[in-house]
Amino acid sequence: MRQTQRFYNVPMTEAKRTRKPPPPRAVPAPIYKRAVVVSEEAKEGLGWLHTAKFLTSASKIVQLPQGDMPEIAFVGRSNAGKSSAINTLAQQRQLAFASKTPGRTQLINLFTVGPREAPDAYFADLPGYGYAAVARGKKLVWQKVMADYLEVRRALMGVVLMIDSRHGFTPLDLQLLDFVSQRVKTGEIKLLVLLTKCDKLSQREAQLATESAQQVLGEFVTESSDIAVVLFSSMRRVGVEDVAEQMRAWMRPRERAQQDDGATAEGASAPVAGAPPAPDAPTLADAAPDA
User: Fold this and answer.
1) Which residues does 114 contact at the CB level (< 8 Å), separation at least 6?
2) Which run of H or E residues covers position 47?
């Protein structure tokens, strides 16, 4: 009986070993595993973002520095990954405070960007909104502060809005857009929407999230507006190069204008070789005594 059992078991085992495995299924690679081609513009942008340094915190707009140095504001819901995005873009682990408790940060945190001795921009990390555990009184106060900042802050040139790609725009996100809508439509403020945590989406879900965001933002698009949408993941570093390139491009028109102004001032003050002296300027002949 044992020989019979052994006789039947051996062929079955051999049959399993010789059976060909099924061909692998063709599954699209996740977004975060796709090859990334980093352009020279993106490299320049990443280097610029890496210079970010903490400057100060403010609870009121009047406490922020005055002047015309451009500001780029980072805004979003408390759990949209705002602080993580700032740290990832700046390639610094603890530049922006990422609390484990959403809604903990209640200040406007300001960072300088650019050369240490002569920074050329500010980053403003605005408090996250929409966290249920925050008292209603504090919510209303900060809603007023953010509305005033987005509507009247003269130095504000760009807004980076964080939207959780899994949930899309919430009513609070739309309300924030309403604060800044007129300045976006006129092109006074540029708008970059980051669809965060996109590593948690499938390829199809990511496509739908992008299309949905484009549809929402369509009503703000004009001939003068500058609006862009980027799929983003701090954990997988998806979209980092695209954001760096976009934000650096925001600064180029201002830099060119400053260079042109400097060249114009230098040309106006420098004498032209071979030109006769100005009529009012004394010459050597005027200074010589009469013969």
Assistant:
1) 48, 51, 120, 121
2) helix 40-49
Tokens of 20: 């060909």
| Domain spans, the chain | 31-260
Look up residue 270 and give its amino acid.
A
What's the CATH superfamily of 31-260?
P-loop containing nucleotide triphosphate hydrolases (3.40.50.300)
pTM (two decimals): 0.76
| 13 contacts: CB under 8 Å, gap ≥ 6 | none
Ramachandran bin of 114, using left for φ above 0, alpha for ψ from -120 to 50, beta for the remaining angles: left
Looking at residue 130, the DSSP 8-state letter turns out to be -
The helix (H) or strand (E) run that includes residue 228 is: strand 227-231
Element (H, E) at 121: strand 121-125
| 249 backbone dihedrals φ, ψ, rounded to 5° | -65, -30
Q: What is the DSSP letter of 238?
A: B
Dist. CA 248–CA 260, nearest whole Å: 19
pLDDT digits (tens, 9 = 90+) for 111-127: 999 999 999 999 999 98
Residues 6+ apart with CB under 8 A from 76: 82, 128, 129, 161, 162, 163, 173, 196
For the residues of 228-244, what is the DSSP string, one character each?
A: EEEE-BTTTTBTHHHHH
